[in-house]
Amino acid sequence: MSRVHLHAMTPVDLDAVLALQQRCYGVDFLERREAFAAKLAVTDGLGCCWMARGEDGQPLAYAVSLPVCEATLPALDAPRCQRPVLPTLLYLHDMAVAPEARSLGLASRLLARLRESAGALGLGRMGLVAVQGSQPYWQRQGFAEAAALTAPLRAKLASFGADARFLVQSLR
User: Fold this and answer.
1) Does the reported pTM lie above 0.70?
2) Strand order across the beta sheet in which 144-145 lies
3) Contact 104, 140 (CB under 8 A)
4) Which has the closest alpha carbon to 94: 68, 130, 53?
5) Interhelix angle for 33-43 vs 14-24, to 10°?
6) d(Cα 117, Cα 8) in Å, to the nearest integer?
């Protein structure tokens, strides 16, 4: 696993994404193929979804993000997504790293790639929903809990569970 290749995610990667999420998340956070396919479809060509594979081709990590505004932030396992005309942030919907690859710095590499994508899209903020006790990790990466949430955002956040927190980071 000395060399890792990052590439833009395509529908061919969906089996690997589903397998990695099974290894990394509790059953309450698993999403169907349809949900990932919808996110890939609305971000095609934008550099928002990335896959990391070892030199042997083994999937090691992925990141799925979308340009959104609060009204278009997808709920967990949403079968459809919309791409707003004027997005306000790059939403990191999902990032998973295989347990055996967690010492390789892949989360940092993927996050750096997403920050570049946000900049290329003219977006000055990133946002994410922290679940499974991950809030301290994301705070160490520069994210902070959003000060106020709109009613639609609170409703979507509820789909992630009672402990879910919406975190944001300014990129400017």
Assistant:
1) yes
2) 4-8, 49-54, 59-68, 89-97, 125-130, 165-170, 144-145
3) no
4) 130
5) 120
6) 11
Within its chain, how far is the Cα of 27 from the centroid?
A: 18
What is the per-residue pLDDT for 2? 61
Residue type, position 41, single letter: A
Answer yes or no: is pLDDT of 159 > 90: no
What does the chain look like in DSSP terms, one character per residue?
Answer: ---EEEEE--GGGHHHHHHHHHHHS-GGG---HHHHHHHHHHHTTSS-EEEEEETT--EEEEEEEEEE-GGGPPPTT-S-----SS--EEEEEEEEE-GGGTTTTHHHHHHHHHHHHHHHTT--EEEEEE-TT-HHHHHHTT-EE-S---HHHHHHHHTT-TT-EEEEEE--
- Residue carrying the six token digits 């409703």: 155
pLDDT at 133 over 80: yes
Tokens of 17: 């994404």
User: Is residue 42 left, alpha or beta, with left meaning phi > 0 and alpha meaning psi from -120 to 50?
Assistant: alpha
- Exposed e or buried b per residue across 34-70, where buried means at least 16 C-beta atoms within 10 angstroms of its C-beta: ebbebbbebbeebbbbbbbbbeeeebbbbbbbbbbeb
